[in-house]
Amino acid sequence: MNRAAIAQAITNGETSLGIEFGSTRVKAVLIDNNFQTIASGSFEWENRLEDGYWTYNLVDIITGLQTAYSEMKQEVERIYGVTIRTIGAIGFSAMMHGYMAFDKTGELLVPFRTWRNATTSAAAKELTAAFQFNIPERWSIAHLYQAIMNDEDHLPRIDVVTTLAGFIHWLLTGKKAIGIGDASGMFPIDETTQDYNEEMVRKFDEIIKDKGYPWKLLDVLPKVYNAGEQAGVLTDIGAKILDRSKNLQAGIPICPPEGDAGTGMVATNSVRKRTGNVSVGTSVFAMVVLEKELKKVYPEIDLVTTPTGSPVGMVHANNCSSDMNAWMGLFREFTEAMGIKTEPSLIFEVMLNKALQADPDGGGLLSYGYLSGENITGFESGRPLFVRSPESNFNLANFMRTHLFTAFGALKIGMDLLHKEEKVSIDSIVAHGGLFKTPIVGQKMVAAAMNAPVSVMTTAGDGGAWGMALLASYMINSTEKESLADYLDQKVFAFIDGQEIYPDAFDVEGFEQFIERYKAGLEIEKAAVNYLI
Questions:
Q1: Which of 124, 200, 419, 468 is the most buried (most CB within 10 A)?
Q2: Among 167-181, 316-330, 493-507, which is the least confidently predicted range?
Q3: Does domain 269-318+411-503 have CATH number 3.40.640.10?
Q4: Beta-strand pair 428-432/454-457
């Protein structure tokens, strides 16, 4: 559409808005009915370690929401000359898992405990044994049960436990709702009922009955909704919170809030069985839509769902790009000290491309980007670490390849279980995240880790916020019997280009050598955690 037509579509509310709370950025993306991004806005933030927990405070959460929306709104006004007063549909998404507990007055009882915390290992192990179903440390139910094991004071006051996306949705609609994909990071989902697993709910209530709390589990969990269902409307109060200029009208339909895993699947057209995607950021996770149940319970593999409730094998590593970002900051400081002003994006591009000139295994170098604990390798806390032997081939190319390999090291350990133990078939993998703004390099590394072809689409930069906007669009624009997979295949991605890269034997063999060094060197990381205070 031309500018005038887009301006008219905005005025008419023929748009969809997705707002996603990522680990380093809150992003708002407004799309038209052709699924093209009209405008976007963002807010940069970082989690903080406070009183032993990784958290974001409520002020930053609301500021991020309002700033991302405001920047998007201002871009619309600047480019199209109109003010947003209505939107066809809105959806909110955020980092999955974590723990937000509120009382009946809406007071947050303890600071938001994010997915990054590795403080729930005892609870996760006990629940996994009780359910015979893997309960990861990040899941909301693990946080709740760990609080119970710790006999925390806030527990009798709980009225609702939800995720960050669920909280934003509740704040702006008044509805305690959750999308099924995000719900599957709170508590196990039954594919047949498309709801929380009743037998496991019963077991949990039985386990805690002697505590005497004035609630049972289903009393405090949000209601589960499927993609395509309406989960509320923007209230008058919600409109004023979202849009500080008070131009936005109430009554806009809101779709179920989702987790970043679900929006990643949507943004990469990976909701059909035998498809998968990799999302790269502060953390990294791979999702594969499963054809059948896994034969065993693996602590390294989460079982979650698509936004339509299909089972998904998820390998989630807590650490990915943060340590590499820190090194890029160091190189930027060096260039500035040399009197050279360089854009950070150029530094990333130059440094990442050096990895293509490296030895296959990274020259014998070893790195761990563990800013926090890592569940796959069994660490409750971490120390970023770079080591080499006197015989290592220490140069810039190998340094960069090593940091790229280690960003996907824990992920590869989990994915090898799906490939080698469960013989899971994957027809296609799509990667998304900021790393892929530099062409080819990250894609080649992921292809080596997965030993499978990896595609990056031209929409990869918009990521989960765009995927959330697509879910909002699906709610209001799909036909009655049109599945989400068909909607994505036939309407959204029919004309979107992507570049596919097949694994290079050179890279695959090198990664296999590196991962053996990575696993053997975990004792070094353990020593760093124990002795580096």
A1: 468
A2: 493-507
A3: no
A4: parallel
